[in-house]
Amino acid sequence: MKQTSSSSLFSAIVEASFGAIGIRTEDRVVRELVYLPASFHGKDAIDPVAQKAAVQVERYLSDPDFHFDLPLAPIGTPFQQKVWAAIGEIPRGKVLTYGDIARRVQSAPRAVGQACGANWFPLVIPCHRVTAATGLGGFSHHDDETGFHVGVKRWLLAHEKVAGY
């Protein structure tokens, strides 16, 4: 893998069909996973946690049934953590709507959407499995139907063999 100056923010970068996934680590935990456009190139891990995360991301990209086991930074509000826990229960190949998750956590769909967009650990917390009642919905605080992030969501759902994607 090669490193570019724009990749210095990341502890590792894993190339993917849709672009890349940046991995940030700090204090022996994963701090963030970021969807990156194809202008980012792979970067070798700079520490053992980044190496573990990179290997697990690569395994997921080749096998959508892979289950992550990473040390994640303890971040997010109690509400976000409640939403993320509910999202983590959605099995591969299935989707729930923002409303479905809202009913499970006794909240509103818009609040669930905000918590999804605030997810620091996409793939590990599979918020791509949450859709709007009327279709795909947004992704990572982006809702442009032809934009990069919604395209990543489509790719992930197709990768997980969700019907219609």
TrEMBL record:
Domain Methylated-DNA-[protein]-cysteine S-methyltransferase DNA binding as annotated: residue spans: 78-162
SUPFAM superfamilies found in the cross-reference section: Methylated DNA-protein cysteine methyltransferase domain, Methylated DNA-protein cysteine methyltransferase, C-terminal domain
Keyword annotations: DNA damage, Methyltransferase, Transferase
Keyword Methyltransferase attached: yes
Gene Ontology biological process: DNA repair; methylation
Its EC number(s): 2.1.1.63
MF terms (GO), sorted A to Z: methylated-DNA-[protein]-cysteine S-methyltransferase activity
Name this polypeptide is given: Methylated-DNA-[protein]-cysteine S-methyltransferase
